[in-house]
Amino acid sequence: MDIIRTSDYEEMSRKAADLMEAQLREKPDCVLGLATGSTPVGTYRELVRRAREGLLHFSKAKTVNLDEYVGLPPENEQSYRYFMQKNLFDWVDIKRENTFVPDGMAKDLPKACGEYEALIRSLKGIDLQLLGIGHNGHIGFNEPGEVFEKETHLVNLSERTIKANARFFSSPDEVPRQAVTMGILSIMRARKILLLASGAQKAKIVKEAFFGPITPKVPASVLQLHPAVTLIADAEALKECDLV
Ligand code: F6R
Question: Which residues pair with 128 in a beta bridge?
């Protein structure tokens, strides 16, 4: 695992954009696995800036998002499709038909999960998967549990995640109770993984995930077994880790 320590959120975002830019230059038709949440917003902002200056092109790239709430249509401002449009897709030269987000409105959700997994396979897998980390160690919406969840599946969100995500809604009651998420196996199959963490509130979980035991109770800890993980974190998020 490579660990890149940055002084703050802005530097973390620039370094993450550097790695994504390198991926796009090396393989313009690459498949990028994308995340939502607060953490990657600065990275997307930086990618948009570079794309608008003509330094970066997404015209051949494809993207697959990690997850989506159940029951929120794409035009709902809290849906992850909407988030991706507003933070990245609407501002760069990516083709809408090359961007994929799980369908949280599907009538048959288990079937839609299988189809999403088949879609990733048909794209020949993910070249670079971007991840954030939840306070409880979740990646995507893979919540702490007794086993590592495998492929794309339907999940009941934990109370802690509902509470954490309530900041984006007018009340916790509005936070959907279910989501569709890529599974741990879907994530682990990505050729490269880039996990971002920022701020003191992530310090404890970053230490547990990357320096503690590998256990489904801390889903992100499985990343210790992946051969090509880069953790980019700011000083606050790394403050509990003993790094030389
Ligand atoms: C988002 C996702 C989540 C977030 C995690 C951290 O697509 O899958 O796992 O990465 O909840 O969220 P933030 O970045 O808001 O702290």
Answer: 32, 192
* 176 within ligand 1 shell (Cβ under 6 A): no
Residue 20 host element (H or E): helix 9-26
Ligand 1 pocket check: which of 9, 88, 138, 193 to mutate, most ligand atoms within 8 Å of Cβ?
Answer: 138
pLDDT digits (tens, 9 = 90+) for 211-226: 999 999 999 999 999 9
Average pLDDT, the chain: 96
Three-class SS state of 144: coil
37 close to ligand 1 (CB < 6 Angstrom):
yes
Domains of the chain: 2-234 (3.40.50.1360)
Q: How confident is the model at residue 244 (pLDDT cuts 50, 70, 90)?
A: low
Strands (E), the chain: 2-6, 31-34, 62-65, 67-69, 99-100, 128-131, 153-156, 178-181, 192-197, 229-234
Any ligand 1 atom below 6 A from CB of 102: no
Catalytic positions, written as ranges: 67, 136, 138, 143
**Burial class, 242, CB count within 10 angstroms (exposed 0-12 / middle 13-18 / buried 19+):** exposed
pLDDT at 37 over 90: yes
pLDDT at 5: 97
Phi, psi of 137 (to 5 degrees): 90, 5
